Amino acid sequence: MAENIGRLTVIIPAYNIEELLGRCIESVIDQNYPKELLEIIVVDDGSSDSTGKIADGYAAKYDNVTALHKENGGSSSARNLGISHATGDYIGFVDSDDFVDPRMFSTLMDAAKRHDADMVQVSRDEIAEDGSMLPDVITPPDGEIELTPKEHMRTLLMHTGDASFCTKITKRSVLSDDLRFPEGELNEDFYLMIKVLSRINKLVILPDKYYHVFYRTGSNSRKKAEDKDYFPSVFTDIVRNADVALDIVREKYPELVPVAERFGFYQRLDYLLHIPTSKMRRDNGFYMGVVKNIRKNLGKIIGNKYLSKRDKIYLFILAPAPRLIRKLHAYVRGL
Question: What stretch(es) of the chain map to CATH 3.90.550.10?
Answer without folding.
Answer: 8-214
